[in-house]
Design brief:
The protein is mainly β and 449 residues long. It folds into three domains: 71 residues, no CATH class; 199 residues, Jelly Rolls, CATH 2.60.120; 104 residues, no CATH class. Helices cover 3% and strands 40% of the residues. The protein has two helices and 29 strands.
Length: 449
């Protein structure tokens, strides 16, 4: 369609000659009006107002579309003829309000599964350096009132003035107070005796003071008492025996406020570096020690966290020490593995009837029956105690004495441990059996710290 090119921004009264017709712009009307150009009395172009175009227009006729609101001129360029809009568009109106949101479309098909991520890191094994923290092993017995060892392996009472009774207690099957279904827990009942230097302590160890030196460690345990009571938790570095070892380093203790219900407690300690320290010359005698202060006279306020003197019943389960400032879940090791760890420090063999075999050996001479304990790597040369034993070899040979020695060839202290039992009438080269003579028979090899 041909287009008349009127100016884009006309002013009122502007004229434009097109095809012999003069168009004049009216700003009040907003469009161009036409009249025949040139003089003479010829009639001007016709102007029609209607909602439909005139049926027989002539070149230059005007038509106002009353329905659409636009002015058209009929234009004949010699090749074609048509109505051409001459209206100037008005200003753009303001944007109308947004229409209502359309309905949500249907969900697309789920995408394919992503690639599996890398396997997470495995938890650190052997986190817990305390042995028998689960109180599963009680080689010496299930209770004691004496000072020192006597019941739970690796746990030792230390008493001065005050007294205590340690006993093995059994959890009710299916209980949920303490997790991981522990079998036993340790109970210690203290009776305080007034005195500035008196105390009752339950303590355990980590062999080798190098462990955790210069690190942050976290001690955790489950505990309760017969009433609301406070206990002190103290770590100490012991540098061994022999020669001139450095003095003990006692780390600032912390208070734990017990209640009458099983609760897990955690305490974080900064263990000092051992740089510049001197270890004792006797091998395997240094260690990191933990004291559970249950009763303490005023002489020990600084080491017991000022708990004071008190009597009471204290119960403990799942005791753990590990690197870092966060307590992880208790590391529960198999019982046979825990027993083997305990036997680095104590081998206890008890007979439950006459004639029971405790161990085998051989007759080294007419007066010596030797038993080799090479399957145990003791911490140190163990001390031996026994009762009601005999050597059975082509007849029963009464044992009158025993000494324990260590063959250190190929290893340190505790490697190749053997015991020479003194007998009479032995036949050199014969095998023998270490046998019980009654129900009160026992054999103890101790290399405890």
């Amino acid at each position: 369609m041909a287009v008349i090119n009127f100016p884009d921004s006309p002013s009122d009264g502007d004229t434009q000659d097109v095809g012999g017709i003069t168009y004049t712009y009216s700003s009040s009307k907003g469009y161009w009006t036409a009249a025949a150009s040139g003089g003479g009395g010829g009639g001007g172009a016709s102007v029609t107002t209607d909602d439909a175009a005139p049926s027989n227009p002539s070149d230059g006729d005007l038509w106002w579309d009353s329905d659409g609101g636009k002015m058209y001129v009929y234009y004949d360029d010699g090749a074609s003829s048509q109505w051409v809009s001459v209206s100037v568009p008005g200003a753009t109106g303001s944007t109308g309000p947004a229409g209502a949101d359309g309905a949500d479309g249907t969900n697309g098909v789920d995408g394919a599964d992503g690639v599996d991520g890398a396997t997470g890191a495995t938890g650190i094994p052997w986190r817990n350096k305390f042995i028998n923290g689960n109180f599963d092993i009680w080689q010496r017995g299930t209770s004691q009132t004496n000072n020192g060892y006597g019941s739970a392996d690796m746990w030792r009472t230390s008493l001065n003035g005050s007294t205590a009774t340690v006993s093995r207690q059994e959890f009710t099957i299916g209980q949920t107070d303490v997790p991981n279904n522990p079998h036993y827990y340790g109970r210690i009942v203290t009776t305080s005796s007034s005195g500035a230097g008196n105390f009752a302590i339950w303590r355990t160890y980590v062999e080798d003071v190098r462990n955790f030196a210069g690190e942050t460690v976290t001690v955790s345990f489950w505990a309760k008492a017969d009433a609301a009571k406070s206990i002190g938790v103290e770590l100490s570095q012991i540098f061994g025996t022999g020669g001139s070892p450095s003095s003990n380093v006692d780390i600032t203790p912390q208070t734990v406020d017990l209640t009458t219900t099983w609760t897990r407690y955690t305490k974080t300690f900064s263990v000092p570096s051992i740089s510049g320290k001197t270890l004792g010359t006797t091998v395997n005698t240094s260690y990191l020690r933990m004291h559970l202060w249950l009763d303490a006279g005023s002489d020990y306020d600084s080491r017991s966290s000022g708990i004071g003197q008190q009597s009471g019943t204290f119960e403990f389960s799942q005791v753990q020490i590990e690197s870092g400032s966060t307590a992880s879940d208790f590391e529960k090791r198999p019982k046979d593995l825990e027993l083997s760890l305990c036997r680095r420090y104590l081998f206890y063999n008890e007979s439950y009837g006459a004639g029971r075999r405790l161990e085998v050996g051989f007759i080294n001479s007419s007066t010596v029956f030797m038993v080799n304990w090479s399957h145990f790597n003791f911490r140190a040369t163990p001390t031996i105690s026994y009762n009601n034993l005999a050597c059975q070899s082509n007849g029963s040979k009464t044992i009158s004495a025993a000494t324990t020695s260590v063959n250190t060839t190929g290893g340190g202290a505790g490697y190749g441990t053997y015991t020479n039992f003194t007998i009479s009438g032995g036949t050199t080269g014969y095998c023998g059996q270490l046998r019980a003579l009654g129900t009160d028979t026992y054999l103890i090899l101790s290399a405890e710290l």
